[in-house]
Fold:
Amino acid sequence: MKDKVTPKILPGFMELLPEDQICFNRMYQTIRSVYERFGYLPQDTPVIEYSDVLLAKAGGETEKQIYRFQKGDNDLALRFDLTVPLARYVAQHYNDLVFPFKRYQMNKVFRGERPQKGRFREFYQCDIDVIGVESLELVFDAEMPAVIYQVFKELDFGSFTIRINNRKVLNGFFSELGFADRIADILRTIDKLEKIGEQSVAKELAEFGVSSEAAKRILDFIAYKGTNDEMLAMLDAQNVADETYREGVRELTQVIGYLRRFGVEEAAFLIDLTIARGLDYYTGTVYETMLNDYPSMGSVCSGGRYDNLTEYYTDQKLPGIGISIGLSRLFYQLKENGLLTGAPKSLTKCLVIPMNESLMDTALEAAALLRAEGINTDVYYQNKGMKQKMKYANRLAIPYVVIIGEDEKAAGTATVKDMESGEQRTIALDKLSEYVK
Amino acid sequence: MKDKVTPKILPGFMELLPEDQICFNRMYQTIRSVYERFGYLPQDTPVIEYSDVLLAKAGGETEKQIYRFQKGDNDLALRFDLTVPLARYVAQHYNDLVFPFKRYQMNKVFRGERPQKGRFREFYQCDIDVIGVESLELVFDAEMPAVIYQVFKELDFGSFTIRINNRKVLNGFFSELGFADRIADILRTIDKLEKIGEQSVAKELAEFGVSSEAAKRILDFIAYKGTNDEMLAMLDAQNVADETYREGVRELTQVIGYLRRFGVEEAAFLIDLTIARGLDYYTGTVYETMLNDYPSMGSVCSGGRYDNLTEYYTDQKLPGIGISIGLSRLFYQLKENGLLTGAPKSLTKCLVIPMNESLMDTALEAAALLRAEGINTDVYYQNKGMKQKMKYANRLAIPYVVIIGEDEKAAGTATVKDMESGEQRTIALDKLSEYVK
Structure:
């Protein structure tokens, strides 16, 4: 006999007990159901791909974090996001897809970063993207927050705000001030505003040759707050001639208009000029989503528009727009904040308990009746005392216990106990499913 | 600009176009829903684990196939099945689990074997297992085929047979013939019966010192065919005193009795003594499942009882029983055999089409009404001709097109086209969802 191996998993990997897994899966299912309700198609790409394909674009930090290894002659890597596989998929299957191509993928991705509280090396991302050929209608820029709105409404973790901005507004504004050649640096800096504060941002901007006067204009501009209509009026009234800026304002105005037609509550979305999304990837509308009572969680759903998804694979110009929910992280944060306690803890509705072994046949038949009506039903088979049997139901949070005794068998009934109220009733077997429904 | 990278995936990896993915997901969802209907709890273990944990038992072939690599100081591996992670999970979380522990896991596993037609390196397994402490009731041996029955009934790919055997019957029979020390060899040999035929099996048995007379007795014994009751009567009538044999017959008799109480049709299960399941892992009831019209597919769902799940991790004795469906392989085979053509090809029920851009607002409102009723709805935003718009619906197999024109807008209606029948009707917007439901 070999020595025993200690059963453990790697740090930074999430593994849940059944009760939490049920809750996690319910969130997963809610998100998927909304994605499908808006017409997104399912996608499931391989976990393992060729390194040169996955890393066609990457560099720097991403490359360091990746799980990469050799198998036979092949240099392989595990996907580190769902956007690169999407780009590869669209380029590879271009002739077989219908455009605009709307897809969701909700799968694990892998990043070997140093594990920290709430950061995982293996985690679920839940993404939707729409990819167009050559161009993509602006109304999709409103569809994204409409989907976010529906998802967080159905997840039901309190009020939230979808913050919306448009990179063209920022880019145009910075160009107008004479910083067209430093836009990426400025964006990356103001993206840190919430973290490091105005003073540090101004200091960092100075390093890029932004005068303190210009820094003040930038900071005043992005700090502007108001209702969506006030924000649009303010943007329009700015003495900025830059054509990119003007286009950004027009886009933002139209997106807000569409959003209202999608039936999204006004309180749920807000133009916020501080949303820069550091990545140089984005080119138009950008989003972040905050739970209003838990600002420390940061953005729970982000995304935006990009001009060219597949540039590393084809010459075809394929613009797109997408959003992503980091579900593992979101789940962890919600649990830490005690927000998951209200959800039902069982998928199973009934536990059938035969009083003794000779009643097993009747118990199996009762369970079959319930299952035939689509009711998730477990049966307690162990020859243990009633206390043990009830404890099983209790620990698994099963809401109804269906007891089959000799009397019940003779009468064709069962005693049904509602585990929450404690109420017991005798019900005919053929009425059981109706009762527990 | 870097050179373009060719977008491609590794050989032996499955990636589906949306239409097939919808079909795959529907099968996945059917299996999961049955697993949950029988009270199984969801489980989702990490893809990456410590190599020494995953390989605690393995050796030989498994070890060669595994994706194993170094990251930092850690020797890591990708899971190659869902049973080893289950064993690790149960040993690790023993104190937090409720026993008998019933769980399902339906996830990808990874095996770097030489890719062949219909064999994948990354594929879905859909497993259920029940784990007991010290012992596990025999009625679970009937629950497994009851679950298999329900799964394949709902998957609806024609008639199927769950073949049932009990290793104790075979082991006891071989012991009675004096081969107690060669049971594993004999089992592995007769497991090849369908592949290599009686003569080759007899020849191979001779290599293990089984006389031609004994080989004939073995082959005659396992070849016996009859109804389940005839098989049980035959087994009982055998002049075999071996206690393991007798226990096996008693178990088989009881399992068949329970199965009938589960409401499983008699035609769907059959005692078949040729089912040996080569693995030395199994110790009692074993199963294989065949699609009656497609015997060449081999077993589409197999499993059985084992004595000690966690022996490499703890001293605790934890017997269990489980089954597994290799979903990726099953999907591939069904598709190859043209059995997937009947399934609906769209998750989206309606496509809303505004006749021109000025009707977009009304289209968005119509879509919101449909979605509010839980109807998966897409909207065509592109400013293209009607033919292009209808082509989009056609290619995505969306069953209803909801057309919003100027007249419809004025009247608060829409023209709904049933894409299969071609029928068109004008419907009030607030009656739309009712109509397409």
Summary: DSSP finds 16 helices and 16 strands in chain A. The first helix of chain A runs from residue 18 to 37. Chain A touches chain B through 96 residues (CB under 8 Å).
